[in-house]
Design goal:
Radius of gyration: 22 Å
Helix content: 55-70%
Distance between the termini: 61 Å
Number of helices: 9
Number of strands: 0
Largest sheet: none
Strand content: under 5%
Order of helices and strands: HHHHHHHHH
CATH architecture of the largest domain: Up-down Bundle
Number of domains: 2
Length: about 350
């Protein structure tokens, strides 16, 4: 396969001495925060992993998180940009008992790799400064490589099934007027992209449900624990709704991972880390549901995702409110408040 023809050009606009744009600042900031959190979680996972292949996988993921943190910090330091606090030794308890089985780590890493790729892929078209662009390209390529390792382990160890199979079309067909029907009249079967997104959302949510169930089990703050329980129940309902849509078409679905959570009630992570993590994961779900709605063509499916979006938006807002109340929410770089300047 031939690559596209190169274009020889040079411009001060891509010089590394150029100031960071808002897009570059924002994407670097969220990359630093996410990987400082991932570093804490993966260090704990390594305390309790028996399968040598899965251990290598976790080690690889931890190495990438550390590399991404280091490079982000280097770029920030060039700009005299204050390094975010993120998550530190205070947010992890390596003495805590085992909370998850080895298999969960692989599912978790797949979910987090997809979340990382979402950040990098959305960011790349908006990045112009050479060092930032090259860094995010490296992040994207490294995460793709890690994801390939994750999928190899999932398949070789029989930990997951592939998305459902459907027949190859016999001929080219065109959409008929009942294509959008979902509740009444002639309702067509799900098409390939609708199936793919239901599968992906189920896969993401069974991982998310097991994680928030574990967090609810070990959270110290009563208000945070109750929010986690609310998120757990909401996620369970969403999973069941998505599964039902596939079962209605006699298609298989991924299974729950709840049995991979131990009975430990001693938390390996701070409430701050766990709350930020679930707020972040639920925010990612909003993007995933948006992608699902974009390829959907049936009214009933649209209603399912719209309902999920509404509930998840409320959860994220409640989590953010608690983060702010406790003084845990770091402020992302923002534009100048000109009105406030005028008052001064």
């Amino acid at each position: 396969m031939q690559t596209i023809k190169p274009i020889k050009s040079s411009s001060y606009k891509t010089n590394m001495s150029e100031k960071l744009t808002s897009a570059e600042m924002g994407k670097l900031w969220v990359t630093y925060m996410g990987n400082s959190m991932a570093k804490c979680i993966l260090r704990y996972y390594l305390q309790y992993v028996e399968d040598k292949d899965i251990k290598t996988l976790v080690e690889n993921a931890l190495q990438l998180a550390e590399e991404f943190i280091k490079e982000t910090k280097n770029i920030f330091q060039k700009e005299s940009f204050p390094i975010p606090i993120g998550f530190t030794e205070e947010d992890i308890n390596l003495e805590a008992p085992r909370l998850f089985q080895d298999e969960f780590y692989v599912h978790y890493l797949k979910y987090m790799a997809k979340a990382g790729m979402s950040i990098y892929s959305v960011g790349l078209p908006m990045l112009y400064r050479t060092d930032v662009k090259e860094f995010f390209t490296y992040c994207m390529n490294s995460t793709i490589e890690l994801l390939d390792q994750i999928k190899d382990i999932l398949m070789s160890k029989g930990l997951i099934m592939k998305p459902p199979l459907i027949p190859v079309p016999e001929k080219v067909e065109f959409i008929e007027d009942h294509f959008l029907n979902g509740y009444f009249g002639d309702v067509r079967p799900l098409h390939a992209l609708e199936i793919a997104h239901f599968y992906d959302n189920i896969e993401n949510n069974v991982t998310s449900k097991a994680l928030i169930m574990a967090f609810a089990q070990v959270a110290k703050d009563e208000k945070i624990r109750k929010l986690f329980e609310k998120g757990r129940d909401m996620t369970t309902q969403n999973i069941e709704n998505y599964m039902q849509k596939l079962h209605d078409e006699n298609l298989p679905t991924p299974t729950f991972l709840d049995d991979l959570v131990s009975t430990s009630t001693e938390s390996p992570f701070s409430d701050k880390l766990m709350l930020y993590h679930k707020m972040d994961m639920f925010s990612m779900k909003i993007r995933a549901f948006g992608n699902s709605l974009a390829v959907n063509g049936r009214h009933d499916i649209g209603a399912v995702y719209t309902k999920s979006l509404s509930k998840i938006g409320i959860f994220v807002e409640e989590a953010a409110t608690i983060m702010i109340e406790k003084g845990w929410m770091e402020k992302i770089p923002s534009a100048v408040n000109r009105e406030k300047l005028a008052e001064e």
